[in-house]
């Protein structure tokens, strides 16, 4: 058995049809001195991803290319690719990152330092979001603000709390702990494999350190409306509780129902229109303050109303996908459990 060098990292990058982003990701990983090996796993790509990776393998000696077969029944494709990559890893630490993630200079060294400082076996960052189109500026910050209420960094990082979470766009885990909890094989059918893996790590008695990734790692998650819709449709139902009751509770909490009621009343009572507008401005201000607390620009309050309606729409679409027992992602369909009625 090959011994892992202390402090060294093997980076694993599952990639399926990532021709637009894979080069920047690999270059950012190759620039990290603490990453001794990069294992890029081509997951049945039909675009130029494999060609680009082959060209980059000639440029970076630390880059190893794997070509993944079709995933076995019951496996999510990304989990299968990550698991194959992990079997080739030799570092003391495994860094799982998405093909659209770009690491800043020194990010890997900082992650190792944080692991030592907090005695953590898993370090994860919620990346800085690159927002291009109006729909990205509307929906993505809104979703992350809702997630911040569900997954508190303080609770996740508290060893006494059972709360656990991670972000698969930057998830670094000690290899021996990964193996002990079964790795991606143990969560092979999970759509939210990052959260499921974090739960297993914490349940096994190891500590997690989860934090903002501002200045560490950045991503542009989606480059089209359809991809953004499909991505959140796949994930949002589970992220918000995974039950019909939790979805309706989220609608009640996130949607400005009272403001709409007041504005409707304003059809016959004009003063109510004024009151509704004031309430809406106050709600936007509150949203703006929440944006700044979560490292988003305050000016994104301009997208509050489209954000609310986009969020409501994709949350319900996610619920309906799970009710039908399947979700889609990158040309594949995966079976999922139907919603439960309880909260």
Overview of the molecule:
With 343 residues, the chain is α/β, with parallel strands linked by helices. The protein has helices at residues 22-30, 49-57, 77-87, 107-118, 134-150, 153-157, 175-180, 183-186, 193-203, 225-239, 244-254, 257-265, 270-293, 304-324; strands at 9-15, 35-43, 63-68, 93-96, 101-103, 122-129, 171-174, 208-219, 326-329, 332-335. It is globular, with a radius of gyration of 21 Å.
Q: What does the radius of gyration come to?
A: 21 Å
Low-confidence stretches: none
How many helical elements? 14
What's the β-strand tally?
10
Strand-residue fraction? 15-25%
Spatial separation of the terminal alpha carbons: 47 Å
Quickly describe the structure:
The chain is α/β, with parallel strands linked by helices and 343 residues long. It has 14 helices and 10 strands.
Keywords:
single chain, 343 residues, alpha/beta, two-stranded antiparallel ribbon, 14 helices, 10 strands, 18% strand, globular
Strands, helices and their partners?
Elements: E1 9-15, H1 22-30, E2 35-43, H2 49-57, E3 63-68, H3 77-87, E4 93-96, E5 101-103, H4 107-118, E6 122-129, H5 134-150, H6 153-157, E7 171-174, H7 175-180, H8 183-186, H9 193-203, E8 208-219, H10 225-239, H11 244-254, H12 257-265, H13 270-293, H14 304-324, E9 326-329, E10 332-335
Parallel strand pairs: 1-2, 1-4, 2-3, 6-8
Antiparallel strand pairs: 4-7, 5-8, 6-7, 9-10
